[in-house]
Amino acid sequence: MPPTPEVPRRGDLRASPAWAALVLVAGLLLTAGVAHREWQEAHAVAGAMQRSLADAARNRVLAPLESASHMLRAMQTVFLSNDRIDQALFVQYQDNLRTHDRVPGFVATAFARRAAGAMPGGRPAYRYELVSPLAGNEALYGLDIATQPRNLSALLAARDADAPTLSAPFPLLQFDHARDDLARGITLRLPVYSHGPRPRTVAARRAREIGALAVSLRLEPMLRQALHGRILEHMHLEIVDLDAPPQDAAVFVHGPTPATAPAQVRGIEFGGRRWELRMWPRGAAADLDETRAVLIAGTTISVLLALLMLSLATTQRRALELGRRMSARFGESEARFRVLNELLPALVLLADGRDGRVVYANQAARQHLGAVLDAPLVSLFANPLLGGQAMAEAAAGGSWASQEAMVVAADGESFWASASLAHVEVDGTPHLLMVATDTSEQRALTERLRYQAAHDGLTELSNRREFERRLQMALDSRAGRFGESAFALLYIDLDQFKLINDLSGHMAGDQLLVQLAHAMRQHLRPGDVLARLGGDEFGLLAFDVDADGAQVLAERLRRCVEAVMFVWQARTYAVSASIGMVLVDRDGCTLKDLLAWADSACYQAKEAGRNRVCTYREDEDTTRRRSEMEWANRLRWALEQDRLLLDYQEVVPLAPAGEAGTHIELLLRLREEDGTVFLPGAFLPAAERYGLMPAVDRWVIRTALAHFARLHPCGRSLRTCAINLSGASIEDEGLADFILDSITEFGVPARRICLEITETVAVRNLLRVVGVIERLRAAGCRIALDDFGAGMSSFGYLKNLPVDVIKIDGSFVRDLGSDPMSRAIVNAVAQIGHQRGLKVVAEWVDGEHTLAVLRELGVDYGQGFILHRPQRVVFQRPDDGAGRRVA
Asked: If both were cysteines, with which of 59, 233, 398, 605 could 614 make a disulfide (CB 3.0 to 4.6 Å apart)?
């Protein structure tokens, strides 16, 4: 007899549900405790975040209104410069301001001109006559603002205050009023005054008023974009206009208004109106993610633990159910695969290989091409020859590779597509499969990018790259063509443009450039190429001209620029330009030559007083200037690539009991990319002419102080390091601060720094030099008066200059042994210097006899080749491979 199966006891059957319930209750209690603590912490954090979001919301609401106000102010400035603007010019200025991009919710900008006494009762009319963009805003054209009393009142208040005024929310004419959220908007207004400076008084504003500018904005998109992100995600929000009637007070509403929750309230004042911003949290759970996570996780774990004890009996059932669901999903996937071809974005067409007629077109093909079933496949090609060739190649058993082709739809519309044809077999029947992708947008984008690559984004003129390409084409056209007509290259540089940028900002400078570009376009001949080369520089290529014709054209452009009166806010600027001209009437010129010649001629125009035209001529002065320009460019590259070098020459005591320690003077060198080293006489004249000396001097000062312990082999025991300062650096108001800051930064004792100033620089601007010297000496620096004696007025100024060292000009020291006058001058300098307590240094010491005479005259120090030849500073010497610097 088989054994009797064991029957579970009653207590065993009840144990599993009881323990599951116990685990569930304990887990839920623990979860509730942890969640309550998390809720308290999250509640405090949520309150701080809500206050922060309310502050941010107020600033974001103001941002688009302020942007629109700035745009109106810029357009007001344009009218002050030219109050006879037509629709085309109005649209162009609006495009330059890019209001669509800068102001969300922008609808239109319009100008209403004032017509005095045009309406019954003698009141003026304000009818819109300029609108941008006009498309979609036709309803504004001719509308009289004066028919709306509240708008007229706001307009007059704006006129008297010369300040933007904001309207109450109202339905915009341009939209369907059935959609209140889209139709409601606001208008920001600003007065427009007649040509001239900006009026200062109410009486002047009323007398010179010619109309008003207005920009209309849709409230819903403007505020929704301004408040997007965390504000709208976490908060219910309401904005009301406190100055509007209750039925029109609502400006913007996002979400329901809680009945009891406290609100964050912020006031917003702009354009004469008061708005109130009220914000409520979307709900405690929205800001208490961690609490919710604790509750969810704790509850889930508790439930899972409880269910685990009951789940074993249902494992098989769940497995079967899971299998059924997977089978259903597999069936759905198969159905999706069947319709995949229908949903492809590419155009898919199938044509019968025997007659070439279309037998299938997917959804994308039907949308782009219309009713094409049973139409000949070749009829879809705008070029029938190309279509026939493609079908022939595919029908031959091969394929027609992807190519650009113009495709024609059933309604006659055509577009560019990248198409491919292949031969396929469907149910044993030959077919032609065509797959095409619409590339019209890509081609349009490519054309736009090509245009942008060749044009300046601000002025829409050709840019420098396109200008140089056209110039090279003109040079290539002349090459090999005897008798080719001449052309002229004009280099136009605005005078004092930096002043406008500094005083009124870059937005004013940009607007000036746009106005000048528009003005110069009016004076071009057909075929001329005007370009913005960068900053305030323009270039012009004028073809088929002789010298006289080019001169006339250049003068016409100069007068055109000079005639522009630029008004920006409270300032009026006169504008002028210096123009350099090169006539290309012979072969052998290169692009680099022409640009350098034009730049040189422009520089001559500026040196001659600005606001004039100079023609390039090859002479000694021009050749020198070209050489200096080349050296200036080489020096700029050397500064950027850190190719400047420092040598040191020791200054040696001449008396046996002279001051102990090593004294050096730093000497500047320039290393070319090929390793050639040039002395300062080759490049410093160019640096002085082109204003590079302050940058060079600052490089020397900072480099020397940063590596002070590695200038000379004696290291940190170096007694004195002398650094030369140019006249341009002495006139720099920030020089003393720079030197003192560098001394502090690198921890170099100021008493070890000797700054050398030439006598001619010192006497050129005595008051400024004395001020700089006294600041540096007060900090501990020593000052040397270099090239003393060369200024022809040395002794008269010596008593007024607070210096420590006199360096006698080398021209006197060199002739010391043969010229009695030089000996007398050196003796006098030494005696006067010692009477004032100064140290005296002789330069250019090159012989033993000279040394003997200097010692006899009591000169303190000597500097020259016989005493020490210049050597490279230690930190710039090459490495010997073992980590040691070699001389």
From this structure: 605
